[in-house]
Automatic annotation (TrEMBL):
Region described as Disordered: 1-25
Principal localisation: membrane
Cell compartments where the protein resides: Cell membrane
Family, per entry: Belongs to the binding-protein-dependent transport system permease family.
Membrane topology: Multi-pass membrane protein
Record flagged with keyword Transmembrane helix: yes
Domain ABC transmembrane type-1: 92-304
Protein name: Sugar ABC transporter permease
Membrane spanning residue stretches: 33-63, 96-117, 129-149, 177-200, 229-251, 288-307
């Protein structure tokens, strides 16, 4: 009996259980069903709590409404009144100033801390310590910093006087120092979150790049400039976008610490939206200001995404 005949007989004696399993014909349909099943709750939440309120905000921005009576359509009058409103212009200028103070400084400090932590042992412990302010309630942090910035008995002015013989400024009551004071609080709170992102990006860089550069005689500065910074550019891009969005939405700090003062020096866009809605009860104008803020953030994000191709490098 030849080999082919024996293989044929052996194959015929195999039981159906040993043979190849048949794949059900509706596998794709079943996978698609479970996919839609699991995304359905999130889709409903997105629709009810994000998309519909966004659409209603655009509709309400075209109406005059005090929150109680009937609504009346006014077209673009709310937007025109906002651009003519001096307080709205002050809020935009203050918010831009706050963004310029917090975003570059916060990103640079977070990057430096991440680079330092990436070179030491015990990264988990240090990462936890640095990240704790990021999950602390902003109102509680603002109250603590109000005490630190107090001109009469605050710890900052106390140490400035005892250690350096300098009389500290009126941090929260001086128009020159109030926004930098709020910016310092925000930088301290956001440092841990940005640091964790940068640290993850640094740990994702292959060590072979640094080994090859050391063989070529590259210095630490050259490694930082030509390897580290380009390879973490996607992380830098994400951190920049999120930091700018967060800086334009600042509210808690100025509301708790200064109530927008002194002399509107810490009066931000979101504070203006709140005051227009819940103090003046002009919800149409308040929603128009919110729509303008949305368009500003959207425009800045699109611009950053457009120019990101010039400096964001993705590892192959």
């Amino acid at each position: 009996m030849d080999v082919n005949t024996r293989q044929t007989q052996a194959a015929g004696t195999l039981s159906p259980e040993i043979g190849p399993q048949r794949q059900p014909l509706n596998n794709k349909t079943t996978d698609r069903f479970w996919g839609y099943f699991f995304i359905f709750p999130q889709f409903v939440g997105l629709l009810c709590f994000s998309l519909l309120p966004l659409i209603m905000a655009f509709v309400l921005s075209l109406m005059k409404w005090d929150g109680f009576g009937e609504r009346s359509f006014v077209g673009l009058d709310n937007f025109i009144s906002q651009f003519k409103d001096e307080e709205f212009r002050i809020a935009i200028v203050n918010t831009l100033y706050y963004t310029l103070l917090t975003v570059p400084t916060g990103i640079l400090l977070a990057l430096l801390v991440a680079i330092g932590l990436n070179r030491v042992r015990g990264k988990v412990i240090y990462r936890l310590i640095y990240f704790m302010p990021n999950i602390t309630m902003s109102v509680a942090v603002a109250v603590v910093f109000m005490w630190l910035f107090n001109a009469d008995f605050g710890l900052i002015n106390l140490y400035l006087k005892e250690w350096f013989g300098i009389k500290g400024p009126m941090w929260l009551t001086d128009t020159r120092f109030v926004m930098p004071s709020i910016a310092m609080l925000s930088i301290w709170m956001g440092l841990g979150g940005n640091m964790v992102l940068f640290l993850a990006g640094l740990q994702g860089i292959s060590a072979s790049y640094y080994e090859a550069s050391q063989i070529d005689g590259a210095s630490k500065w050259q490694q930082l400039r030509h390897i580290t910074i380009p390879l973490i550019s996607p992380t830098t891009f994400f951190v920049t976008i999120m930091s700018i969005i967060g800086s334009f939405q600042v509210f808690d700090q100025s509301f708790v610490m200064t109530s927008g003062g002194p002399a509107k020096a810490s009066y931000t866009i979101v504070f203006h939206i709140y005051e227009t809605a819940f103090v003046d009860f002009t919800f149409g104008k308040s929603t128009a200001a919110a729509v303008i803020l949305f368009l500003i953030i959207l425009s800045l994000t699109l611009v950053q995404m457009g120019i990101s191709k010039r400096w964001v490098h993705y590892e192959d």
